[in-house]
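explain this:

___
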Amino acid sequence: MPSIEKMRYAPVSARDSNDDDPLPAYADTHQRRLGRLLLRPLVPWILTALFASLSLFLAILIDRDSSDGLGSFAGGYATDFGPSKKHIHVSQHRFTGGASFDEDGMMFIPNTGETRFIGDPKVYPEIDYNWDNLTWGRYVLITKGEAIEAWGEEYATQEYWDKKRGGYLAGFDIFHTLHCLNHIRKSLNPSYYGTDHCIDYIRQFIMCLGDMTPVPTKYYPGLGSNYVESEMPHTCRNFDALRDWMVDRF
């Protein structure tokens, strides 16, 4: 493969001073002037073609996530429940709950967010309510047509019919995962017990999401090392809008 040095162009002055050039200097000047005159009317067309090509490229780039049949984060994936897609709204959201350290290296969480989800439930009794409220109504009735569209004909059978609710019952993964995380939270308290199912399910959910948001690390003198600064903006689907839609379906 030729090196970059070998591919370097010669200076213009070197080409102009070539003794083997059969044309006089004035002929070269005349040709350049004639070339500019011929090119000038074509400039608008060239620019139009350039911008059209750029617009087409951007349109293809934007639509790339949906053209492969998998859908997109903002518009809804192929595996998302169809009627929920119009309720998907995307925005940037700064995470809370990042750890900090005092001069003695003791960790504390300065910002727990507007609604408390962590801490000792004996000190903050509202924590259990806040968690339960996140996932209330997480199983909804869907029609036979919705069941077939979501899972296929084999699921539109009596085996998947809920006799108590009188229809096909469906849950949504975001709320199932939150439910599992709540069980893990409770397992940190001796009065509760977590399950391997929840731990492994959350692992799969995190790996499936594949969030590549970069997070920095911050040096804490009391700790003597860096620690992740997790309170960074993330691109998120609006949870409240999706939850409100689910509760309306309940």
